[in-house]
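C-alpha cells please, single chain.
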Amino acid sequence: MAELLIIRHGQASFGVANYDALSTLGQRQAALIGETLRVSGWVPDRVISGTLTRQVDTLAAMGFEVDPEQHAGFNEYDFQDLLKAHNSPTPSAIQSADRKAHFRLLRETVYAWMRDEIVGAAETWDSLAERVEAARQFAISSDAKRVLVVSSGGVIGQMVSRTLGGPVENMMTLNLQIKNTAMTRFVYSDRGFHLHEFNSTPHFAVGEGAKMISYS
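Here you go.
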C-alpha cells in the first residue's frame, strides 16, 4: 500500500489584506510538522502543493529535500469571490469584527454554493469537486510510495467526504474542523483508496506545540 499524506497549510494572515501570506505562527507550524515527520521516520518520495502562496511556503518551510511539484487542483475555493457573487458582507469586514461570524458566514455561503444558489461565481461547486478529484488522481499517479501534499481545508474536506460517501454537506463539516498543518492520511493501491487518519496533530500534543493550534 502507498500513502498520500495531505497537510493543511500553516496559519495564514487572517484579517489582513494579504491573507495568502503565512503568519509568523504559520511558518513555525510548518517547520514543526516537517521536523515531526522526519523524527518519526516518515520522509516523502514525492511532494506537491497547490499554487497558492500559503501552500507553497508551507511546503518549503517543512524542509524536505525533494523537488516540489504543483497542481492548481489543490488550491482552496475562492471564498471572497463567492461572497461577492452572493451579495454578502465583505470578508475583511467580517474577519476584523468577529471570527465566529466569519466562519458562520463561510458555512452558510458554501451551503448555498452547493445548492447552486450562487450565480456568477468564477467556479461552480461541481467544478470544484471535479478539480479536487483530478488533483487526487495526479497525486497517486506515480510509483511513489509516500506522497506529501500541502493543500487547504476545503479541498481536504472534499476529498475526505468523497472518499467516505454521504451528503455533500459533510465537506463543510469537515472543512471547519481542520487545524493548520493537521495531517490527513490516505492509503491506496490498485484495489482501492481509503481514509486512514484525519486532522491529526501530534506536533501540537506537548511542549511549545500545544500553544500553536490554529484554524485559519
